[in-house]
C-alpha cells in the first residue's frame, strides 16, 4: 500500500476502467463488448486460470473478436480488394 494514495483522497478510481470493460461507465452506457465479457467471466468464475483457458475458449474468443475485430477488419480488407479489382476491370 502506498504511503500517499492520491486516487483515494480524490475519490476517483482510474484502475477500474483498465480491469473490466463492464465496469460502471461515465455516461451509464454499456460497453460494446459487455455481453461477451459477461459470458466469459461467468464461465471462468471459480474454475481457475488453467481450466478456464480450456473450458471457456469459445467465450474468450468471442470476447476477443468483439474487442479487436480482426475478422471484421480482414473481411473489410477483402471487400476493398474486390472493389479495386472490379474498378480496374471497368465494372
Key terms:
mainly alpha; 6 helices; flat; disulfide bond; membrane; transport; mitochondrion inner membrane; electron transport
Q: Layout of helices and strands, plus pairs?
A:
Blueprint: H1 6-10, H2 16-19, H3 34-44, H4 49-55, H5 57-68, H6 70-89
Helix pairs in contact: 3-5
Task: Tell me what the structure shows.
- With 91 residues, the chain is mostly helical.
- The chain has one domain.
- Helices cover 65% and strands 0% of the residues.
- It contains six helices and no strands.
- The protein has helices at 6-10, 16-19, 34-44, 49-55, 57-68, 70-89.
- Helix 3 (34-44) packs antiparallel against helix 5.
- The longest helix is centred in the last third of the chain and has 20 residues, at 70-89.
- The radius of gyration is 20 Å and the shape is flat.
- The mean pLDDT is 82.
What would a concise description of this structure say?
With 91 residues, this protein is mainly α. It has helices at residues 6-10, 16-19, 34-44, 49-55, 57-68, 70-89.
Order of helices and strands: HHHHHH
Apparent shape: flat
**Main beta sheet, described?**
none
Mean pLDDT: 82
Straight-line N-to-C gap: 66 Å
What's the total count of β strands? 0
Q: Determine the fraction of residues in helical runs and give it as a percent range.
A: 55-70%
Percent strand equals under 5%
List the domain count as a whole number.
1
Tally of contiguous helical segments: 6
Provide the gyration radius in Å. Answer: 20 Å
| Low-confidence blocks of residues | none
Label the structural class.
mainly alpha
Disulfide bonds: 33-66, 43-56
Organism: Mus musculus (Mouse)
Subunit structure: Mammalian complex I is composed of 45 different subunits. This is a component of the iron-sulfur (IP) fragment of the enzyme.
Family: Belongs to the complex I NDUFS5 subunit family.
Amino acid at each position: 500500500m502506498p504511503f500517499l494514495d492520491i486516487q483515494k483522497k480524490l475519490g476517483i478510481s482510474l484502475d477500474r476502467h483498465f480491469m473490466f470493460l463492464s465496469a460502471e461507465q461515465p455516461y451509464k452506457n454499456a460497453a460494446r463488448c459487455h455481453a461477451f465479457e459477461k459470458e466469459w467471466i461467468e464461465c471462468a468464475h471459480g474454475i481457475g486460470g488453467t481450466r478456464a483457458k480450456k473450458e471457456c475458449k469459445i467465450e474468450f474468443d468471442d470476447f476477443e473478436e468483439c474487442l479487436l475485430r480482426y475478422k471484421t477488419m480482414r473481411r473489410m480488407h477483402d471487400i476493398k480488394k474486390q472493389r479495386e479489382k472490379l474498378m480496374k476491370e471497368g465494372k
